[in-house]
């Protein structure tokens, strides 16, 4: 179903039978941003709002019984705010109230551990947190410093039993205990770029960078 709008689709997510689509909030009023597919009417239902202000939901990450979604600033990624989560069957998202909740990337490893990367802001852009329950009744462990604080994290991808942390200036791995390894041994330091590895993904067990 097409929706008439000048806004763009910012991300998607599904948990169980629920399929969500998110549009940017460049303007307009609440409840125009998060849509859930109705299999009976075959229409997108406008059921939940992105937080006020110019915000977007990128793609969501399923962990255990919830779909977790970061919340980014529309044009300034350093203004990421509290992430949201929703279980299957929910009509809206719950905002995280944990002490650290303005996370920018999320991923889940093969050991069923949740990873969250801190938003790109001076001094903390290289921090990664882990959790076995990132809902409001749980807690985060960390931060774990990945590389130096002058370059931000651009992607997180499952890499065997490890999590591959991609940065503007190189590749790192982190395990479930928080041990960080510099994977490329500084090879990319002289090729630092804001978009390095930003579209990294795992496809059929292979890492595409």
Describe this entry's structure for a reader:
This protein has no helices and 19 strands. The chain has 209 residues and is an all-beta fold. The strands form five sheets. Strands 5, 6, 7, 8 and 9 form a five-stranded antiparallel beta sheet that branches. A four-stranded antiparallel beta sheet has the order 1-2-3-4, with no helix packed on it. The model has no long low-confidence stretch (mean pLDDT 86).
Topology:
Elements: E1 9-15, E2 18-23, E3 34-38, E4 43-48, E5 55-56, E6 61-63, E7 66-73, E8 81-87, E9 94-95, E10 103-108, E11 114-118, E12 127-133, E13 139-145, E14 153-159, E15 162-167, E16 170-174, E17 180-182, E18 201-203, E19 206-208
Quick description:
The protein is mainly β and 209 residues long. The chain has strands at 9-15, 18-23, 34-38, 43-48, 55-56, 61-63, 66-73, 81-87, 94-95, 103-108, 114-118, 127-133, 139-145, 153-159, 162-167, 170-174, 180-182, 201-203, 206-208. The chain has no helices and 19 strands.
């Amino acid at each position: 179903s097409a929706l008439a709008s000048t806004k763009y689709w910012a991300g998607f997510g599904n948990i169980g039978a629920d399929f969500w689509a998110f549009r940017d909030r460049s303007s307009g009023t609440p409840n125009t941003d998060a849509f859930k597919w109705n299999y009976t009417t075959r229409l997108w239902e406008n059921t939940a709002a992105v937080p006020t202000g110019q915000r977007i939901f990128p793609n969501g990450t399923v962990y255990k019984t919830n779909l977790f979604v970061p919340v980014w600033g529309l044009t300034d990624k350093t203004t990421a705010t509290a992430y949201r989560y929703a279980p299957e069957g929910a009509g809206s998202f719950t905002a995280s109230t944990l002490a650290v909740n303005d996370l920018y990337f999320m991923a889940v490893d093969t050991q069923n551990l949740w990873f969250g990367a801190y938003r790109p802001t001076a001094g903390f852009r290289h921090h990664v947190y882990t959790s076995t329950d990132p809902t409001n009744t749980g807690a985060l462990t960390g931060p774990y410093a990945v590389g130096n604080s002058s370059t931000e994290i651009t992607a997180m991808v499952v890499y065997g039993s490890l999590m591959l942390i991609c940065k503007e200036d190189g590749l790192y791995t982190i395990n479930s205990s928080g041990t960080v390894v510099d994977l490329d041994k500084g090879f990319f330091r002289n090729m630092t770029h804001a978009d390095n590895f930003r579209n990294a993904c795992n496809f059929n067990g292979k890492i595409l960078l």
